[in-house]
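Onboarding guide, step 5: your first structure request.
Type a short instruction followed by the sequence, for example:

Predict the 3D structure of this protein.
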Amino acid sequence: MSNSTPESPPASIHILNKANYSKHTTLTLPASPLPPLPLSSIRLRPRILGLTTNNLTYARHGHLMGWYDIYPLPPATPAPYNDTSTYGRIAAWGYADIVESNVDGVRSGMSVYGFLPISTGIETITVELAADKNGDVIPHQIIATDGHRQHLWKIYNRYQICASISTLEATRTQDSLGLDALMQGLFATGYNLSTYAFAPSSAARIHPSGTGPWSTEDADLNGAGIVILNASGKTGMSFAYALRKCRHVSEQPALIVGVGSDKSVDAITKSGLYDKVFSNSDAGKAKDFLGNNEVKRIILLYFGARPATLPTWQHSLSSPIPFTLITIGGEVKVQDPETAKKRLAELGTTILVNASALRERGIECGGEEYFRGFYEKWEGARGVFGGSLGLEWGEGVEGWEGGWERLCGDGVGAGVGLVYRV
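The system replies with structure tokens like these:
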């Protein structure tokens, strides 16, 4: 624990226009004194952040899901950007230094992995030690308890306590931490979807949305044809990996089919995770392929894709073979809040994945053992993805701003991962 209160140095922050998040800017806020650290709190300074199309989703649906509420605009934000009805900031997965703490067992000099602001400033978070369903503390896990973020899914309030970033880099590599920032959170969604939505055991099974009945038949992948839209995306790849590498061979689907744009087909094929790869325009060919292989059911998973891709594939695959549609993510395009709300309502007729509920089921079932097993699986996946994904490291929030511009313009290739030291 630390008794000294650090000064907050000048800080760069990334701010979005909520109505059109392709309009964005980086501001530098002046240095300011920090108030005394509240009880049971830590102060964080972000260091490594990953940027993916998921961050566009956080911006697109931030007004609906509360993502703009996680890290409010700092009090020193100048006009007009201090108008919270127009401007806000989202967060990203990555690592931050702990610069101050009064939480038992959590020391300044350590780091956290979790959902962090795009900022070089210092953030104060009130936390509690994470516990399992029996009340036993789960090592190295804390949960944010700030009132303004308790309406969020719990997955965004959980943080992992780690050694210092310099120690992690010395024992591992910088690229290893970059892959954590880029993909660990997304891998968790794919892994938990495979492990708990499609759990062979009823004790572990949960409906993908977190609520409602989900039978043995619903979760059974025996003889199933899995079709993944946006198969080059990091969450889709993670789900395919979990099906292939994290399940017993007797519990795997009959076929895993990857679908993507013409320019991503090669990257999808080279991953080695798919039995067959099709372009977005090949829905008819995919239907024939699945029919010729006599799959018992088709499960179409929409991990976000180009506009109009989903309706075409849903129409093509929804008969005569038993069909299930599961949605994770959204279209890879800039959308204003009203359009995003409308699209989300249209997707309401499908099964919408609740990534937080899936992970919480895993923690409920396994407690500390859940995290031990998850990190072991992620370590294996990280080695595979690291061999096929080219990391592009950028510097500062200004570098992040340039990456955001590229993503909004669909200018990042399937085999590229954007990571930033801030």
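Each response can be followed by summary notes, for example: The first strand starts at residue 11 and ends at 17.
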